[in-house]
Amino acid sequence: MGRQQARRHWRKIWIGSAGNMVEWFDWFVYASFAPYFASAFFPKGDATAQLMNTAGIFAVGFFMRPVGGWLLGRVGDRRGRKAALTLTVSLMSASAVLIAVAPTYGVAGYGGAAVLLVARLLQGLSVGGEYAASATYLTEAAEPRRRGFASSFQYVSMTLGQILGLALLLLLQHTLRDAALHAWGWRVPFAVGALGAGVVFWLRRSMLETDVYEAEADPGDRGTVRALLRHKREAVLVVALTMGGTVAYYTYTTYLTKYLSHTAGLPQRTATLVSLVALLVFAALQPLAGALSDRVGRRPLLIAFAVGSTFLTVPILTLLARVRSFWPALGLSLLALVVVTGYTSINACVKAELFPTGIRALGVALPYALANAAFGGTAEYVALWFKDAGVESGFAWYVAGCAAVSLVVYATMRETRDLDLTRVGPTPAPLQETAPTPRTEPA
């Protein structure tokens, strides 16, 4: 790869994933800052009940993701990947502003919770389309033999968004008194997220469409449910692929800080620092695992994740509940995230590789969003439900069971590494080496 071509390649990765980082910064700071604003929107009472209320609204956001997957997936297939990516970041910016200015229970009663709910619905709509749009863009924009590596940056950007959120939380914890964080400090990250979205909107206005999308000659019924129904097997496969991975991912990222704080009893700052360091390592692992999949295939990594998650989840969560200091908590968290990397590093390209160009964005978006609504968005709520019922260990078995279901799918699916994206269909064509078409990048 020449220097100019390499610059174009990295520019596409950067622009395609930068918005994803802001989207997931806003998405995850809701969960990270929930212990500070839960009491602001609901009546005083049991802390676990307040967290369950905010977790319930967090889960509601996931149920808008299928709507966002359908709407923005259709935009991505009919109007282009650029149009969908620009729209998603605009919606996320609006939702962040709403949360930043939402009135508290003391000012507006449940009106503040209603504003919070509307903001989460907008976030769900946005993220429902962002995942598929960025997954499709990064996969199509990559060199054919480096799709795993390029698409792995989707979870790099997602994780960096959470890292930035956790870093901001640590900064505010060290610079503000606890009372100030509960009173107004929790609004800061949402204001930061809104500003970041504006920057990414400007960046995405200059991005180029992918060659694969522009080479699609027949518009036909692009991005329609009718077209998707011709690929029912692939759609069901995306749901099954996602089930175990999304539950494990949200368990060890979104829910981990709360688990270490409320179950293991670690100080809030220690729990936050554990999550931050673990996620830094996790982000660095994604390109390495993505590049490995370009050499050995996607299935070996997926199977390794599912086996590890099925048999190690219960021991890891059991031991995490008993940790009393930073280093044991970090070691167990890293072990869990190394296992999860087998899924996160390549799931975007695997799903994109299943569908033809005219239905690729919707084909990834809608079934993935449905799976996340059913399993990812409810993971934290299910965990808190088990805790509230006095059988918290049941959640670990639930996570392991979801991974076991996905293991069956991974073991029986076809390998997708060598498929030609321009010829994916009922009988997928193997990858053929072709010279890249030079394109002019905007300055």
UniProtKB/TrEMBL annotation:
Gene3D superfamilies: MFS general substrate transporter like domains. The keyword Transmembrane applies. It is a multi-pass membrane protein. Residues 422-443 are annotated as: Disordered. The keyword Transmembrane applies. Keywords: Cell membrane, Membrane, Symport, Transmembrane, Transmembrane helix, Transport. The chain crosses the membrane at residues 21-42, 54-72, 84-102, 108-132, 153-172, 184-203, 235-252, 272-289, 301-320, 326-346, 358-375, 395-413. SUPFAM superfamilies: MFS general substrate transporter. Pfam families: MFS_1 (PF07690). Residues 12-417 form the Major facilitator superfamily (MFS) profile domain. It is found in: Cell membrane. Belongs to the major facilitator superfamily. Metabolite:H+ Symporter (MHS) family (TC 2.A.1.6) family. This is MFS transporter.
